[in-house]
Amino acid sequence: MTKVLVFGHQNPDTDTITSAIVYAHLKNQIGMEAEAVRLGDINNETKFALEKFGFDSPRLIENVSTEAKKVILVDHNEKQQSAEGIEEVQITEVIDHHRIANFETADPLYYRAEPVGCTATIINKIYKEKGIEVPANIAGLMLSAIVSDTLLFKSPTCTEEDIVAARELEQIAGVNVEEYGLAMLKAGADLSDKSLEDLLTLDAKEFGMGESKVIIAQVNAVDVNDVMDRQVELEELITREIQEKELDLFFFVVTDILNNDSVALALGKLALKAEAAFNVPFVNNTALLKGVVSRKKQVVPALTEALAE
Amino acid sequence: MTKVLVFGHQNPDTDTITSAIVYAHLKNQIGMEAEAVRLGDINNETKFALEKFGFDSPRLIENVSTEAKKVILVDHNEKQQSAEGIEEVQITEVIDHHRIANFETADPLYYRAEPVGCTATIINKIYKEKGIEVPANIAGLMLSAIVSDTLLFKSPTCTEEDIVAARELEQIAGVNVEEYGLAMLKAGADLSDKSLEDLLTLDAKEFGMGESKVIIAQVNAVDVNDVMDRQVELEELITREIQEKELDLFFFVVTDILNNDSVALALGKLALKAEAAFNVPFVNNTALLKGVVSRKKQVVPALTEALAE
After folding, report:
1. Bridge partner list, A112
2. A75 is in an annotated binding site
3. In this structure, what DSSP letter does residue B232 have?
4. Has B256 been labeled as part of a binding site?
């Protein structure tokens, strides 16, 4: 119980998994007993990155309070995105690049957030500040996280700092980021082994927006029609989810990783708010969102504002 | 309106005022148009520090939303401690050393919190990270903040980092910290020009603890009896405040800066919870809290826990 657990959000993506591994490594280097763990299944993209750089998947935990007294959060802070039992443990540190909400502590803590594209970009900076050398395989993980979160630098969340960090890490890891990055993104966009239930939960995050409860799920695809051809079945599943979780809005985003657009499907009693949010008509519950690829920078702020009105 | 305003909490203390001035200075050095402002009257201790190092008091603002679009918070994050209108402006950055609570943004931001004794200790670190020279008078302000928040290194909130920073800043500022520090604390503990209303509001902070609304006010004194001799009148004023603000608890802490103990006065319908919080009987609504000098590290966590039960 003295060990500190390091983890990212539920429905883990590549930044969440690799940042947990990398930050636990950094903590181990400075003498803290820290273990990276995960809150859900590893997706195909992350699996590709872990295999490439020779890492096992972190251990899955169910309820954090039976596992540890102290925890470090990476890549998230909102408690509904975090581990079960999070309110019974002490959060000693947070490294994140998202808005802050639904987060509260009893005691002071280390909190490091920067408005960059990827948690790994901040962790790379911390390695330097502490003068700790970045091994090649750790660099590979951080590079994978940046590629994933910025869609190979195409997302509007991508900052100059992310690009500079990726170029450094590319050298250390000994890979070509364009080649490796596209292969990794394609591995993640391969949805052939996924059920429709999987597509709705793989990268789903819940948000409190004012008084409303919203889930925004996102998948990457090489061809969005592979997913949207099954809209009728998707709507059935989403409608059930809305009832079970008493959601006001379920917003499903299918992102075209080659053209950097998304198709959105909006359901729930606040679905019409999506029209105002993106200034586009939704026909048959769907719309093409030109140039929209980022949940954090494009979808969440637009919906937050529209729902506040 | 393009200017970014930098400010600390309501009922400003020395760390809040000087950190706003110092961080605005740092931002100006890196080319940002930033102005330090304040949300309330300057106390005697802060006045002593500003005069010693040749600074004017920052401009008082009433409602931040009529003054700026973007703001930087120092030394606080909880919205009930912040400026009126805070919800209508964008918080682009926070530098703080408190717990995080009642804080929410729509967008990602810079957030730098560390569990150290004083905001100035973190800002001193940022000057170094950015390679910006600390002028002697700016060093004097940061030193004053550390002395104030750590009660000249006697508070349990004081960390090794605060002491190291103070020793560096002492050199740059060209003062003897023990001598200057005690003079500054005594200037702050001189309550002769204060009304009882002043004592209750000078350094009062409101906290949400679970469902309860709590105000914790603190004053420093050389002789606590100067204050407690007027308990009957204090209780009248506090009882009125409890009614007006619908408080569950008003906790008034008079800290003896020479012996490093405090006398507490607890009123409100949850006043009895203070006995459990500090494991001491309250007689006639008051108790001596041996070794208690820190609201943040000793009073807030103890009351938070007791009120949660």
Report:
1. A95, B112
2. yes
3. H
4. no
CA distance A157 to chain B (A): 10
On whether both A183 and A200 belong to a single domain, the answer is no
Q: Name which of A110, A297, A304 is nearest B115 (Cβ-Cβ).
A: A110
Q: Which of A189, A222, A244 is the last residue of a domain?
A: A189
Closest C-alpha among B115, B102, B27 to residue B71: B27
A190 annotated as belonging to a binding site for a ligand: no
Residue of A nearest to B298 (CA): A107
Q: Which of A108, A110, A305 lies nearest to residue B98, judging by beta carbons?
A: A108
Chain A's closest residue to B94, CA to CA, is A113
Question: Which residue out of B107, B110, B296, B307 would a mutagenesis test of the A interface target, given it has the greatest number of A Cβ atoms within 10 Å?
Answer: B107
Residue A76 labelled as part of a binding site: no
CA A106 to chain centre: 26
> pLDDT, tens digit, for every residue of A213-242?
999 999 999 899 999 999 999 999 999 999
Query: What is the CATH number for B106?
Result: 3.90.1640.10
* Number of structural domains found in chain A: 2
Are residues A48 and A184 part of one domain? yes
Give kind and range of the element (H or E) at residue A221: strand A212-221
Nearest Cα of chain A lies from the Cα of B144 at a distance, in angstroms, of 21
Q: Please state the ipTM of this predicted complex.
A: 0.85
Q: Do A174 and A255 fall within a single domain?
A: no
Give the nearest partner residue to A100 out of B98, B104, B114, using CB atoms. Answer: B104
pLDDT tens column, A166-197: 999 999 999 999 999 999 999 999 888 899 99
State the smallest CA–CA distance between residue A112 and chain B in angstroms. 5
Q: What are phi and psi of B100, to 5 degrees?
A: -105, 130
Q: How far apart are CA A245 and CA B256, in angstroms?
A: 53
What average pLDDT does the segment B50-70 reach?
Answer: 96
With contact defined as beta carbons under 8 Å apart, do B126 and B107 qualify? no
Same domain, A85 and A122: yes
Structural domain including A302 reads 196-307
Contact status of B102 with chain A (Cβ, < 8 Å):
yes
Same domain, B275 and B134: no
Residues A284, A249 share a domain: yes
Residue that has been written with the tokens 């657990």 in this structure: A5
> What is d(CA A252, CA A262) in angstroms, rounded to the nearest whole number?
10
The reply to whether A13 sits in an annotated binding site is yes
Quick one: which of A47, A46, A21, A43 has its CA closest to A34? A21
B296 and B185 within one domain:
no
